[in-house]
Amino acid sequence: MIRRRRLLAIAAAALVPALPAQATPVRQWRGVALGAEASITLNHPEAARLIDLSLAEIERLEAVFSLYRADSALMRLNATGRLDAPPFELLDCLALAGRVHAATGGVFDPTVQPLWELHAAHHAANPEAEPPRAETVAAARALTGWDRLRIDPGAIRLDPGMALTLNGIAQGYIADRVAALLRGQGLDRVLVNTGEHVALGGDPRGGPWQVRLRAGEVLLPEAVAIEDRALASSAMTGTTFDAAGTAGHILDPRNGLPGPILWQLVSVTAPQGALADALSTAFCLMDRAEIDRALTAFPRTGLAALVPVPRG
User: Fold this and answer.
1) pTM beyond cutoff 0.85
2) What is the DSSP string of 126-191?
3) Predicted local distance difference test score (pLDDT) of residue 229
């Protein structure tokens, strides 16, 4: 099965430096969340209890956002076209998705799930195949459209045949929620990584948290320092549909096709992980001028890395 982009091992990885021992040593949990390698790094005498709380929160939120669990809120919405009494987190995430959709001129669009299913199934049946036929893409694209999504606190409704994916925003959203949970437990120096990074304060061993980025196979020379900020990374070829690795997994809602491979790496910093996640996804489909315009809609956001694809 083709899985959505997860760039922890491909585009972004937190490297925890070796620093002098502390009275309370830094503890790091590593595992998987929403199909991504994940970690939580903190310094607290009750680290084991706090990590257990965090993992329970991740599990709870996977039951909202997962596309791989038939019982998740998102999958139930996609299966029936209606979800009554939707979880607050789903409404909250969709509200932010709507803001990013507007700021990017519709490039960020969670209603592309029918297109994803089309391309995934087409290339899974024959990895060497040409793209799906234009009329088939047009039929799937007719099942998309953010303006056809109806959201209110009582219910979320989709037109027949529509479906949502929040894989371009949910990892960041979950990191935000775990960080908020740990802040509520009194912590102020934590790095949460659910495929996207959210930092509370700085590294307890001194200075900000340091995150190293990869563009393709190249480790970028300078780490990104984050403190009370989020960092998210995307790359068009982090996952590809085809055997040749040319059909990237981020689909352009404007034509229903994998976007052009403009950038090897897009990394965004923002006050929220969900916002950084959504913007980094959309920016893979946008040129530099379009990216700069979109950033003006969100204070305290910026590019941490924008690495073009080598030409020639």
Assistant:
1) yes
2) -TTPPPPPHHHHHHHHTT--GGG-EEETTEEE--TT-----TTTHHHHHHHHHHHHHHHTT--SEE
3) 98
